[in-house]
C-alpha cells in the first residue's frame, strides 16, 4: 500500500515537471521555477497526509485483528488449562484419566470391578509364557481389559500353520518373531498398555529374574518340562500360575499356587515322554484352544481383582464337540510336595529336560525308546525304497494324516489300534505274504513309530519278525529326501525325482492336448489305444511303477466351459 502511494506521488511530480519543461520555451525560467516548486511542495504535502492517514488506519485494523486472534487463542488455552486441571483432579480422585474411564466404562459399571478394580488392573503386570493358540487370545483380552503391563515370552517365529488359531498374526507376519508381531498388534489395540516382548526360551537360568517382576503368570505352553519349570519358579517367587492346555476339541484349565495346591502337589512325577502328545502331533481345533486361552485371561483378571471362585484346587474340563464344561475338585496341598510341602527338598530350579525326559519346547521332541540297531535313517529307507527288495511300511499316524500324504508301500494302522488283535493279525499276514522283506514303522516325527515298534516287538515275541523304526518320520523324509513332500507327495510315484516328474508331466500334457485337438476336429490322427500304450511306456520308463488313480484323474479330466472332455487313459491296464 505504501509503495503504491509513493508511486502515485512520483507520477504527479513527473507530470508537473513535464509541464514546467514545456513552459520553458514560452516564459522566463526564473518566473516558472518558484511556481513549480510550490506546486510540488503542495502536492507532496497533501499526498503525504493521505498516506499517513491510510497507514494509521491499516495498522489499527491489523492490530485489532491480531488482538482478536490472541483473545481467541487465550480462550482456547484457558479451556485447555481447565480441562487439564479437571483431568488432574480426576486422576487424584480416581486414579484414572477421563479417557480411561470412558474406555473401560462398560466393565467399570460392574459392581465387582468399579473404579477401584480398574485401578488394580491398571497397576497390574501379567506374564504370558507362550504366544501360541492359548497365549494369543489371553493377551488380546488382557490388553483390552486395561492390564498395565503384559510380558510375552516365546522363542518361535510365525509359521503359516499357526494362523488358523493364533489370531494375533497375519500372513504378513510369517517368518517374524511371534513376540514382536504380538507386541505390535497389542500396542495398536491399546497404546496405554505396556507390552514387553521376550524372544527367548524360558529356562532355569532366566525364569526367576523375569517372573519376579510380574503379579500373575499364565502358562500357555505345550510341553511338560516348561510346566514344571513354571510351577517351581512361581512357588519360589510366590506368584499364582494360571495353567491351561488344549488338544483336538478338548481343553482343561486350573490355577496353581493360589491358596491351594501347586502343580507338583497334583503331579509329583512327570508322565512318561511316550504318553505325551502335543498339538503338532495330535492336532487342535482353533475355537477350542481359543476358548481355553480366553478363560486363562478371565482367571488372571479375577486374581488381580481379588474376585471369588478362582479355579484354585479345581480343574475345568472343556469338550468342544459336545460344548460341555465340567469342573472337578483336585487334591489339596501335598504336605510332602518337593517344592511347597512342609519339608521341601527343592530350593532352586533344576534341569527340567532331564527331569521330564523331554525337551522344553514345542518343536520336534525326540524320544529314544529303541536301540540303534532297531532303527534306520530316512536315507537308508530311501535306498531300500528305490531298490528291488520288497518291504512293508507301517504308518502309525491317524487316518486323516495318512489321507493327506503317505509314502508308497505303506499301510495305515494308527498307534491307538496297534495293540488291537485284528490289526496285529493283519500286520502278521502282510509280513508273511512274502518270505523275505524289510518291515518298518513310520510316523510324523519318529516318536509314535518307536512306541509302535515297542508294542509290535512284544506282540511278535518269539517269532522271526523284525520291525524297525524310521528315524525322524515324515518330517525327516521331507527335509532330507524330498523337500516337496507332502505338498506334492504324488511325486513319490516318480521315485522322488522331480526332474522325472516334470518330464513325465510335460509329455502327458502334450499327449492330452493332442487328444483334445482330435476331439475338437473329429479327426482321429492317432487312436486312443496307441496313446495309451505310449503313455504307459513313458510311465514305466520314468517311474518303474504304477501311477496312482488319483494322479491319473487329475491329469486327464478337462472342463473348458465350451467343451467338457474326460480322457479315459487306463495306464494301469496298459502297463
TrEMBL record:
One of its GO terms (molecular function) is ATP binding. This is Ubiquitin activating enzyme 4. One of its GO terms (cellular component) is cytosol. Residues 60-87 form a coiled coil. PANTHER family: ADENYLYLTRANSFERASE AND SULFURTRANSFERASE MOCS3 (PTHR10953:SF102), UBIQUITIN-ACTIVATING ENZYME E1 (PTHR10953). It is found in: Cytoplasm, Cytosol. SMART domains: RHOD. The keyword Magnesium does not apply.
